[in-house]
Amino acid sequence: MTICISRRQFTLATLTLPCPLVRTPQAERIPPPPPSLATESPPAAGPLSHTGYRDVLSIAICPLSDLPMISLKDIVPAATNTINTQFIVLDKGNIGQDGKETTCLALVADETAAVHFQLWGDECHFFEPGDIIRLSNGIFSYHKSNLVLRAGKKGKADKVGEFNMLFVETPNMSEIKWANDPTNPRKFVKEEEVSSHSRIFLPLP
Amino acid sequence: MSTSKLLRVCSLDAENPIDSSLREAFSSLHDRLKPPFPLTIPSPSEYSQLNLALAYGMLTEPHLAKTHLTHLHAIVIDGYNHFTTILINLSNESYPKLLQTPKSQLLWMSSKLVQVAAVKVETLIISLLRQIKGGDFSEPNLWLCAELMSILANNWDWLLEEPLVMKSSLFVFLRLLADHYRLVGRPELDKLKRMEIEFCIRVLRQHFDICLDIGRDLIRILQDLVYVPEFKNVWMDFLSDPGKFGVSVFMDISQLYRTRTPSHYLLLTITPEMETQLRFLLTHVKWGSQKRYQAWFAKKHFCTPGSETLIVDIVRFICCVHHPSNEIIQSNVISRWAIIGWLLKCCKKNYFLANVKLALLYDWLFFDEKVDNIMNIEPAMLLMVNSINQYIDITHTLLEFLFLLVDNYDVQRRELIFKGVSNSFCLLVRKGVVHSLESLTSCNQLSPVFREKLSSMISSSNLKTVKGSSESEIILCGRRTPSGA
User: Is residue A171 reached through a cis peptide bond, with omega within 30 degrees of 0 on the bond before it?
Assistant: First the structure.
């Protein structure tokens, strides 16, 4: 039997085969890091400690606000700053001027959804693709007919890490058409998905 | 937000927890840090706060650092364990962000802690060694090399008591010398090069007995230094007069070949930040999502002119240090072989590409099931087999290189290497990493010469008999069930 399989097929195979591709006896598993490289105090317990993946969980209760962190898939347009969330920057558009203020549109995402994020002022030059940002009291609303997430006047975006965060590029919350909730005209509900992915920032080939 | 005296941050950076704990301890105890020091014995929590405060004082107030150090000597009751741990955490978590003053102070404090043989100072020095970046000729990186080199050279007696630091430093500086020797026209580098050469030669010549357990990667990195005059003699003695090292058990270079390099050494040549990112990529990122991470990694770590040499270290890390669990191997997390395929494509210069291929195939050459780990050779096998359809050039170039190594790597020990490579193929099939080698031996796109060589290698090994054994059947049956049903 030959195994001339392409990368894609290989992926599917790894998903469905019940038997491990490599049979490693227990003894051949990763040994614990040598004591000289591992520091003993808890804050630096492993390679994924400070800016690592675990932080995504540990910052889940945002110290800057009473409101809990929400996932991007759950954000709904509103007129007030209430959004506390964390995401990774995937892409940045060109930096431009909006009146006196420097602005720049970015594609950001977490493990549940992506959204367009409006960078403002210094944020435009400072935040780069791969940066993990914690948004406190942000706002998701229409800005010049574009539906964007941003810090707004009352909110704040802080860089909390780099690289170590998972994301999805679909759905994109800025590519959803929202309608007024018939039972509560001050609220929005999802009407339809205009596009599964961002139409401004195209997915990598 | 006030700007930090410790780290290079701006108002858009979230507060760094280490920075704030140090700063808060310092500001709450500030008045007690000036002489006369109180004679009362601090409670455990006061002691802990005092250590943080003194660390912050020394890091940010160079003009008062000596006073703070005297204070530390006066209060210390734990062999400096607490204090050293603070610095280890700072180095591991925040070294790349440190401002120049705290950076210089950290190195000064480390040298002082070496002088008093502080508890865990060996961990601190090894942590700082890991902050040196391979392939980076920037001023701050060369400065760190020089600072650590002087700490090591000025504390030889201490180093003799700390063999792991000696061996780790040897490994790191041999690796760096290959970079530094390649760089010409930088006279300010000459002094550093001289110190590095003297240090490495001294360790190799006087303490070769303790270097033996570094194993085969010691030879691999020494290969890059074969043209450095000082190392020519070392090579001559390795090959023709091993007795010159004065170690009775060392009779032949093949003893080093046969020793698998502990992962400790291969971790030294990549920074903690790279390690975190690579482990994240290979533990969490799914197939199809890897491209952005790869682009970010390359932008961050491969942007300087010499950084291609780093790819060799990363490939060794992936093969020998990062071994995913069976759960991850079965999941749709991106595989090690695919990341290595990408790294091969990142390498533009042939010279470095050859070194990357050597790094990928190195454990094949001396593979012995008793001492070696199949996970070290698995990525190359899967990369060869899975590239057949779309990237036959990779399969071709790896097989070509492997046969080249068998014939030429060490002509006098060709038998050993031939056996290592055939052992590798044999075990990879027996353990079910690949069903068989038929995809290679029957692949029309591969040169008939290679296919013939491969077939003769398999037939010379006991692969054929093993294939019929019960163990292999069990593995193959398990694999066959879903597709065969």
Answer: yes
Query: What is the three-class DSSP state of B204?
Result: helix
pLDDT above 70: residue B472:
no
Establish if B24 belongs to a structural domain: no
- Answer yes or no: do B123 and A37 touch at CB < 8 A: yes
- B475 interaction partners in chain A (CB closer than 8 Å): 19, 23
3 state SS of B409? coil
Q: Which long-range contacts (CB under 8 A, 24 or more apart) does A64-70 make?
A: A64/A136, A64/A137, A64/A156, A65/A136, A65/A137, A67/A137
Cis peptide before B36, with omega less than 30 degrees from 0?
Answer: yes
Separation between Cα atoms, residue B223 and residue A195, nearest integer Å: 55
Min Cα–Cα distance to chain B from A32, Å = 10
Examine the domain organization and report whether B252 and B274 are in the same domain.
no
Q: Tens of pLDDT along B56-97? A: 999 999 999 999 999 999 999 999 999 999 999 999 999 999
| Chain B: closest CA distance from residue A50 (Å) | 7
Per the domain annotation, does B371 fall within a domain? yes
> Could you tell me where the beta strands, DSSP code E, fall in A55-175?
83-92, 96-98, 101-109, 114-120, 131-143, 146-150, 156-162
pLDDT value of position B186: 82
CATH architecture designation of domain A72-193: Beta Barrel (2.40)
B294/B407 same-domain check? yes
Q: Are residues B241 and B276 in the same domain?
A: no
Residue B323 has pLDDT above 90, yes or no: yes
Out of B206, B226, B256, a domain closes at B256
Q: Are residues B208 and B291 in the same domain?
A: no
Q: Do B239 and B201 belong to one domain?
A: yes
Positive or negative: CA dihedral B169, B172, B174, B176: negative
Is B232 a domain residue? yes
Domain match, B276 and B251 both: no
Give the residue numbers spanning the domain of B312.
270-484
What total number of domains does chain B contain?
2
Could A163 and B296 be called an inter-chain contact, meaning their C-beta atoms sit closer than 8 Å? yes
ipTM of the shown complex: 0.89
Per-residue pLDDT of B162-206, as tens digits, reads: 999 999 999 999 999 999 988 888 888 899 999 999 999 999 999
**Residue among A47, A126, A166 whose CB faces B10 most closely:** A126
